[in-house]
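DM from R.C. (forwarded with permission)

"hey, sorry to bug you on a friday — could you get me a structure for this? deadline for the figure draft is monday and I only need the backbone to look sensible"
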Amino acid sequence: MKKLILFIFLISPFFASAQTFRVNIDPSLGESKELDGRLLLLLSKNNKAEPRFQVSDGAESQLVFGMDINGWQPGTSQLIDVQAYGYPLERLKDVPAGDYYVQVVLHKYETFHLKTGQTVKLPMDRGEGQHWNMAPGNIYSAPVKIHFDPAASNELTLNISKVIPPIEAPKDTKYIKHIKIQSKLLTEFWGRPMYLGANILLPAGFDEHPNVKYPLAIFHGHFPADLEGFSTTPPDPNLKPDTSARFHITGYNRIVQQEAYDFYKQWTGPAFPRVLAIEIQHANPYYDDSYAVNSANLGPYGDAITYELIPEIEKQFRGIGKGWARFMYGGSTGGWEVLAAQVFYPNEYNGCYAACPDPVDFHHYMTINLYGDKNAYFLSSDFKQTPRPEERDYLGHVGSTMKEVNQSELAIGTRSRSGGQFDIWEAVFSPMDKDGYPKRIYDKNTGAIDTSVAAYWREHFDLTHIIQRDWPKIGNSLKGKIHIYVGDMDTYYLNNAVYTAEDVLKKLNNPNCNCEVDYGDRAEHCWNGDHTQPNYISRLRYHQMFIKKWAAEIKNRAPKGADLKSWRY
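My reply, with the result:
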C-alpha cells in the first residue's frame, strides 16, 4: 500500500509541476532587519495602471494573491506558490495561462504588545488612511510583463526594488489648522505612542473676536488627510473635465471645485453661524478610522476622542467646552459613528445627524440577519445555495456578493488585517480572541456565523437594541438629538436596518424620542436628507447643511443661560 501511494504522488499532475514566483528584496533598499507583513502578488491583464491599483470589489478587478510573512531574514527570498490565497480567483493554480503584468508588494506589519498581554502583528497607519497599496514604507517591485502558465514547472523571479515615500503633512492656512496629540489612553492600550488628530476650520472673524468662544461642529467620516470641500479660490478655468463613473456626469471635478468655493463664500458671509468645524483623524492598525467607540480590539477610542482630543481642540481654539455646544454629523461610517457617540456619550454631545449609517441594527447587517441566519454568504435550502448580494445600484442590479468581497479581504489580510469594511466591523464589534486578534463573526472561508459572537455584538454595538434597552436611563438625555437619513435604494442595503430602527424609535416613551428619520426616493449611498438636490451635490454640502440645521434647533435644547448670541456675529 505504501508503494502505491508513493507512485500516485509522483505521477499526479497537481504535484508534478506548478509555476511559482521567487521574490527577492534588492539590497539597495537597505532592509537590514527581519520583516513581517503580507506579501501580495498582483496580476493584471492590462497596463492601464500598476497592478497594485487595479484590485477592487467590482467586475473590473484584477488578481491579488497573498501570504503571511513572519521574520523575513535579510538576504533571503520568499516563494509564492500555488497555495497562495487569492481574489477574484481563489488559488494561483486557477489562473488561466496567458500574458500578465505582474507586481509584488510587501505590506509591512509592526509588533504590538497590548495592555491585555497579547502580542499582535498589524499594519500601523502611516498617514495614508490604511491603504496597503499606498502606505509609506511598504516595498514593492516595478511591474513587468510575463507569460504565466500554472502547469509550467519553472520559477519566475521578481525583485522588490522600490519603497513608497512618506506623505507630506498638510500646512496651516488662515482658515484651516491642524492638531495632533498623543493619547494617553490609546498609548497605554497599544503599548506604543498612539496619536489622534483633527483638521479644523476656523470661523470667519476668529482673530477679530478674541473673546468669543465657539460651538464645536464635529464631522465624522473616513480618514481626512486635510480638510476638503473648502477653497478660497474659484474653480480653475483651465481644468480638464473628468467623467464620474458613479454619477454619470462629465465635469464633476469642476462641480466639486465650485461647491468648495461657494462654501467659502457662505462660511465667511454675514448669515452663517460661527462655529469651529472639525474633521477627526483616528486611523489605527485595523482601518482608516476607529468608529469612535471603545472596542476590545482597538482600545478606548471613544473615550480618547471625547475626553482627550475634543477638550484639547476647545482649549486651543476657544471652544465653549460644554456638551450642549457640541454636535456631530457624518455619512456612512461617519453616520454610524455620530449615532454611536451620541448614544454612548449622551450628555457630551447635543445632536447627531447620521446619513446612510453603517448597520444600526444587526438583524440587517446589510443582507444578513446575524441573529437568525446560519450563513453570511448564502441563502440556503435543501437543494441550492443562493449568493447574498453585497452591493447594488438604484435599480437593484447587483455588483458584488458577500462572499466575493470577503474573499478579497482574506486575500489581502488574514486575522481581520485587510483594512477592508467587513474586517473593521469585526475588529470594532467583536471580543478579542485568545490570540489577540478579533474573534470572527463568521468563518471567512465558509460564511458560517458564530452565534456567540453575534450575541456579543448585540449587547455591545447593536445601536437599535442598546437605545431600546437603555432608554429608561438615557432617554431624557437623547430626546430630540437623533436624526437619521438614508436612501431607500442604498447601495449597501443600509436602509434595511434603518427601517427597524425607525420602528423602535417611534415606540419609545417616557420620554418620547422626538427623533427624525427620513428616506430618499430611489437614492443610493450616501443620501443625507436633502430632497432639493441630487445626491452628487448634497454629498458635498455636509458642513453647510448641518451646521445651519443645528444652529436653528439649538435654542430648543440649550440649557438656561447658555450663550447663543456671541458666536452669531
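R.C.: lifesaver. The two ends are 92 Å apart (CA to CA).
me: no worries. The chain is about 25% helix and 25% strand.
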